[in-house]
Design brief:
The protein has 323 residues and is α/β, with parallel strands linked by helices. The protein folds into two domains: 15-278, Alpha-Beta Barrel (TIM Barrel); 287-321, no CATH class. 42% of the residues lie in helices and 13% in strands. The protein contains 13 helices and eight strands. The protein has helices at 20-28, 34-47, 76-83, 103-106, 127-139, 156-167, 185-202, 217-226, 248-254, 263-278, 287-294, 300-307, 313-321, and strands at residues 15-18, 51-56, 91-97, 117-122, 143-148, 173-177, 205-209, 231-234. Strands 1-2-3-4-5-6-7-8 form an eight-stranded parallel β-barrel, surrounded by six helices. The longest helix has 18 residues, at 185-202. The relative contact order is 0.13.
Length: 323
């Protein structure tokens, strides 16, 4: 497929998706203050961000509400306390993980909710359950995406079958997800072409969610965009699990669409993100994340290693080689 767009022009199909609360919440168990969430919402609106994800729709039977902040569960009243009726052009999103939510009960009909989008997160082996969740959310009136996670560790034949299943479903969009931050731009190019071919076949847009283990989240995001991917995930200062994500400030600096305004983002980072760092929340590129990304492994071992303030990187690397 040919490159779509160039560095000097605007592609009106590209949308920016803020996932700071949802992916960033994995860093601090969603323990954000209401002041932080309010300020983030206002900053995103002023910056022209197209979607803002408030967190997960996790089951309160599976997860202890005393161990997590409210954005692990995204109750309707909690979202409305921030956005009211959301009298803005920005859409509100939540994520629902296969096997981790009671979606039939906890996701209200769209007519009763201020939420606009439900993103269904799944692994390839969970596709039948994911399709059921997609159809449930779509029947309730939501825009729906399917986020197929950890594709770098999945068999290509399984990915192909999963894409066909989503293609034939009622989902509006399909996400490329580099869960381990192990993919390179050359690989993203091929993957994006594959996803876009499915998207064009079934009339669905394609999104990109990148992790920064090898400092490639931004590079992979703009590479995906160059191939025609249109919904681009980012977070403030790259806040997200482990090495974090594509940074909002980088993405908005890159995009030429005059609707996007980086100033509110910089102001929010200055006034709020630096305070989150000061509370001890840790994310961003570090050598242990490089190593798990290079070896295409889940970053959980690197997260634990960094929490223990260890620096014997060579030993950590040899331990990873034995896994």
């Amino acid at each position: 497929m040919a490159q779509k767009g160039d560095l000097m022009t605007v592609r009106s199909d590209i949308k920016v998706f803020d996932a700071t609360i949802r992916d960033g919440g994995l860093v601090n168990n969603f323990m954000f203050t209401d002041e932080f969430i309010n300020a983030l919402y206002r900053a995103n609106v002023k910056a022209g961000v197209d979607y803002m994800e408030f967190g997960y729709k996790a089951s309160k039977e599976l997860f202890d509400v005393n161990k997590f902040g409210k954005w692990k569960f995204c109750d309707e009243n909690d979202i409305r306390a921030i956005v009211g009726d959301n009298n803005s052009d920005m859409k509100i999103s939540v994520m629902a993980d296969v096997g981790r939510c009671n979606y039939k009960d906890d996701i209200l009909p769209k007519s009763e909710s201020v939420i606009d989008m439900v993103r269904v997160a799944t692994y390839v082996h969970q596709m039948p359950a994911a399709i059921d969740m997609i159809e449930d959310a779509k029947a309730k009136g939501y825009e729906v995406t399917c986020n197929i996670m950890a594709i770098s560790n999945a068999k290509e034949a399984d990915i192909d079958q999963a894409l066909e299943m989503v293609g034939q479903s009622s989902a509006d969009g399909i996400y490329i997800v580099d869960s381990y931050g192990s993919l390179y731009p050359e690989q993203i190019r091929e993957i994006a072409d594959k996803y876009i071919e499915i998207g064009e076949k079934y009339g669905k847009y394609i999104g990109m969610h990148a992790h920064n283990n090898q400092q490639l989240a931004f590079a992979n995001t703009i590479e995906a965009a160059a191939r025609g991917v249109s919904l681009l995930d980012c977070t403030m200062m790259g806040m997200g699990r482990g090495a974090g994500n594509c940074a909002t400030e980088l993405l908005l600096s890159f995009l030429k669409n005059p609707k996007y305004n980086i100033f509110p983002v910089l102001k929010f980072i200055q006034d709020h993100m630096l305070q989150v760092k000061e509370t001890g929340a840790v994310w961003g590129y570090d050598i242990p994340y490089l190593l798990t990304g290079r070896l295409n492994q889940h970053p959980s071992s690197a997260i634990d290693y960094i929490k223990d303030n260890k620096t014997d990187y060579a030993d950590f690397y040899t331990d990873l080689l034995d896994k």
